[in-house]
């Protein structure tokens, strides 16, 4: 059983505050981690349900910043195979990205910061 | 001579303070009047404002294109071909101006825009001008009295979403075949780089009938999404990343329309031991091929961002290869001597730094570079040192498209090992193979799961060589006459010349 403190994905406080703002405009939200060209490797934030997930995706976790409807964070299963040994933190930086992520018009862009999972985390997720 | 930025004394480029959308042959503001700033990554400062469009503006553009499509579809191929040739001539007459503007807006070195981006774009219009003249329909004789005639007909109105890494060239790759094939276009430039395309449109506006080409500017979520999901388009073409690619397919599935997607890669560049058999021109070319990861600051979908070097030559090869990387001149991209300029945006800059961080955490060894850098006098710009990591193909820096001047190097033992590592990736857009032995080069070239394998060369993009991805790198091909058919329907007329009934009824 997973210890409740162990996560695959987290948020910085700044990202949490931005999500609270975005929910007021766009309603409940979701993330899908992108890969590939241009704005690839960036997390894409959409109104919940806009992007159809399937068995081809893995739910990495559900983010729950204060006062915000819980936000599912997805990644394609094939990409997850290459990312699974790292812990992700959703941060926000100035910029405008591309793609259809909802924060871009605000002059900011979600960004993934990564660290290697600890041995304890790897054990918790059955990766060791 | 260092070129002057737009609107500076002696500059090749004079810009207005603002650009609107181009819809139905007219320059029109966004319907709600909103604008956004276009920032130069060279100095990090805004230099022009652009219309910030929404769904209503996309609606207007699709309507203008729809109004124009029947007349445009009826023009002869000769007429369309001649228009494309005139577009090419017009761009060629303004080549230096557009090259400087492209550099200022994107950050790429002017030596590349002058020698590659603009000449390739100009040639591309000429190629499709020729290709459409030479395109044949078909006559199939079913039997002596029954003929199947196959005609090419345009799709109608197509949507095109352009990336920011080669703004003019990528717009041209999509526009030239679509216009040649007789379609009307609604084009959305990247929000980082709309102005060079708008200047191109300004230069060629009088050559096209109103409504044939419409350009709507704005953010992905506000303008790109309404375009991709619009019920009035017959096709959508997109270059970008995988999540947006999937979303665009999702919208296309709701409208039952085709897509062309180009979604990037993590291209292997494989160096076999015999490249070092002689210290000659070919070896020198191979070393340049190694350094090609830094072309366009690494912001190329086919960036050769994984180098696989045969173990038996690794130390000797890398000594020369790192020396070649260290000889790269970095700085103000408007200086024709500079080889690596600025990353295209602040968030791109941040993302690359996040990869330099995870690369180091995963234990990859920094062989050169590894940090952000500043350029004197351009302190606000977004610059990164050309960086070479040594590590293992399982590391994230070997698996993700960093889109920066960052190379990850590993070794292989033999051809089978090289092929295994080369194909151990989600993507399959580009690859390079360097070998003097032609059998090795051929087998690797056929074995690598990628749409474009450069053999003893890299980063060449001539028209008439098909370009596109295997695996998660996308769907469809560009840069080749087959692209005409991606923008056409097939009409079959099945005609009976027999007076005799079938006899069923």
TrEMBL record, chain B:
CDD domains: ALDH_ACDHII_AcoD-like. InterPro entries: Ald_DH/histidinol_DH, Ald_DH_C, Ald_DH_CS_CYS, Ald_DH_CS_GLU, Ald_DH_N, Aldehyde_DH_dom. SUPFAM superfamilies: ALDH-like. The active site is at 262. The keyword Oxidoreductase applies. Belongs to the aldehyde dehydrogenase family. PANTHER family: ALDEHYDE DEHYDROGENASE B-RELATED. This is aldehyde dehydrogenase (NAD(+)). It comes from Knoellia subterranea KCTC 19937.
């Amino acid at each position: 059983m997973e210890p409740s403190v162990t996560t695959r994905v987290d948020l910085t406080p700044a990202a949490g505050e931005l999500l609270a703002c975005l929910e007021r405009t766009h309603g409940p939200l979701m993330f899908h981690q992108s890969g590939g060209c241009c704005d690839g490797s960036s997390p894409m934030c959409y109104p919940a349900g806009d992007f159809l997930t399937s068995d081809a995706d893995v739910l990495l976790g559900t983010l729950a910043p204060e006062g915000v409807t819980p936000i599912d964070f997805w990644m394609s299963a094939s990409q997850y195979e290459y990312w699974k040994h790292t812990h992700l933190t959703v941060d926000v930086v100035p910029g405008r990205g591309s793609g259809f992520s909802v924060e871009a018009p605000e002059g900011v862009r979600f960004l993934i910061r990564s660290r290697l999972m600890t041995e304890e985390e790897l054990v918790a997720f059955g990766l060791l | 001579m260092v070129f002057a930025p737009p609107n500076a004394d002696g500059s090749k480029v004079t810009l207005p303070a603002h650009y609107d959308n181009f819809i139905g042959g007219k320059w029109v503001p966004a319907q709600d009047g909103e604008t956004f700033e276009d920032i130069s990554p060279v100095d990090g400062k805004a230099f022009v404002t652009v219309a910030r469009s929404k769904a209503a503006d996309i609606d207007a553009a699709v309507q203008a294109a729809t109004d124009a499509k029947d007349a445009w579809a009826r023009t002869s191929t000769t007429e369309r071909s001649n228009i494309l040739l005139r577009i090419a001539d017009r761009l060629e007459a303004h080549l230096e101006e557009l090259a400087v503007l492209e550099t200022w807006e994107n950050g790429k070195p002017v030596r590349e825009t002058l020698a590659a981006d603009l000449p390739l774009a100009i040639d591309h219009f000429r190629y499709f001008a020729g290709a459409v003249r030479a395109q044949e329909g078909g006559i199939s004789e079913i039997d002596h009295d029954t003929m199947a005639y196959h005609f090419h007909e345009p799709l109608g109105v197509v949507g095109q979403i352009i990336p920011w890494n080669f703004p003019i060239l990528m717009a041209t790759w999509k526009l030239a075949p679509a216009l040649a094939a007789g379609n009307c276009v609604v084009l959305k430039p990247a929000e980082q780089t709309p102005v060079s395309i708008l200047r191109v449109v300004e230069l060629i506006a009088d050559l096209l009938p109103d409504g044939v080409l419409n350009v709507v500017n704005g953010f992905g979520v506000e303008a790109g999404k309404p375009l991709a999901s619009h019920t009035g388009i017959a096709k959508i073409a997109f270059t970008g990343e995988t999540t947006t690619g999937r979303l665009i397919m999702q919208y296309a599935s709701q409208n039952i329309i085709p897509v062309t997607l180009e979604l990037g890669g993590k291209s292997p560049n494989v160096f076999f031991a015999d490249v070092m058999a002689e210290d000659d021109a070919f070896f020198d070319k191979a070393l340049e091929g190694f350094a090609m990861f830094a072309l366009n600051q690494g912001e190329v979908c086919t960036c050769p961002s994984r180098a696989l070097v045969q173990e038996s030559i690794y130390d000797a090869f890398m000594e020369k290869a790192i020396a070649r990387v260290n000889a790269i001149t970095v700085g103000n991209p408007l200086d024709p001597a500079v080889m690596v300029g600025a990353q295209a945006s602040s968030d791109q800059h941040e993302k690359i730094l996040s990869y330099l961080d995870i690369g180091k955490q995963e234990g990859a060894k920094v062989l050169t570079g590894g940090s952000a850098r500043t350029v004197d006098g351009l302190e606000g710009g977004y610059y990164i040192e050309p960086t070479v990591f040594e590590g293992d193909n399982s590391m994230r820096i070997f698996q993700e498209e960093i889109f920066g001047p960052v190379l990850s190097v590993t070794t292989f033992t033999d051809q089978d090992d090289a092929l295994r590592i080369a194909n151990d990736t989600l993507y399959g857009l580009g690859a390079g193979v360097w070998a003097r032995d032609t059998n090795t080069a051929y087998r690797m070239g056929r074995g690598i799961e990628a749409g474009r394998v450069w053999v003893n060369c890299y980063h060449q993009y001539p028209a008439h060589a098909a370009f596109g991805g295997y695996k998660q790198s996308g769907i469809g091909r560009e840069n080749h006459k087959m692209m005409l058919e991606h923008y056409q329907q097939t009409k079959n007329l099945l005609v009976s010349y027999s007076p005799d009934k079938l006899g069923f009824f």
